[in-house]
Amino acid sequence: MPTDALLMRPATAADAGPLAELYLLAREAAFPAMPRPVHDDDSVRAWVHRWFEPHATPVPEAWVAEAGERLVGFVMLEDDWVHSLYVDPELVGQGIGSALLDLAKGLRRGGLGLWVFESNEPARRFYTRHGFVDVRRTDGSDNEEREPDVEMRWEPRPTLAGLRGRIDEVDDKLAGLLAARARLTALSQQVKEVPGAQGRDPGREREIARRMARLAPELGEARLARIMDVVITESLEATGHGADRASGTDGADRADRE
Which of 149, 153, 125 is nearest to 138 (CA)? Predict the structure, then answer.
């Protein structure tokens, strides 16, 4: 299908029904690369209709692609995030998704983020071709489907100031996570038979490094083991349990022994 034959326009409440049906068709066609929705079809239809309620929160911005009078795809944006981008399964590979994504980039010239399931390799390749890069991976505990996913980001022209701003955002989150971990470390010392450095568990630390490497393969297990050794050592020091640290222990065997 020639993409110059597509009509791109903002979605209206009259599109809610066709949008919901296209969403359901596309999700079913994408299985098993994408898990099926956790909500039944009627709940999905009601959710799409709520996009067009006067006081919808968050306020979605949905655009549709039409060929003739047929709705063949749509993209829904929330702030600078691509919440949803789906194409009629019969027309995948004909440039409709690319046209919708290019539209989204034009609407969000400062950059776009999105989430994609780790298992959805076709979608990940698609977004990579369009300049998106992996930002982080999760184990899926924060999404409804409980499936591992990947955050991806597109920046039109990365600048040092912009990249430093994003690094600062990550560092702020990291500081909160490190503080939370230190508090949990302190609690764990209260219930351990042998607290402090003497009670560190090499086997558990190696398993934590392996688990983290599955979420951050670009860092590698050995590097993560070294990072976590420092995190655990300093957490124990912060809680007053680090003074009895055993000497001569190989750092490669220390990653989190609480």
Answer: 149
Q: What is the dihedral of CA 125, 126, 129, 130, to 10 degrees?
A: -140
pTM of whole model > 0.70?
no
Q: Is the separation of the CB atoms in 82 and 113 below 8 Å? A: yes
Coil, strand, or helix at residue 150? strand
Whether residue 26 contacts residue 71, with contact meaning beta carbons closer than 8 Å, is answered with no
Task: Name the 3-class secondary structure at 8.
Answer: strand
Domains defined along the chain, listed by start: 3-157 (3.40.630.30), 161-253 (no CATH)
Neighbouring C-beta atoms of residue 168, cutoff 10 Å: 10
Q: Which of 143, 151, 142, 104 is nearest to 124 (CA)?
A: 151
**Predicted confidence (pLDDT) per residue in 11-52, tens digit:** 999 999 999 999 999 999 999 999 999 999 999 999 999 999
Hey, what are 108's tokens?
A: 């969000």
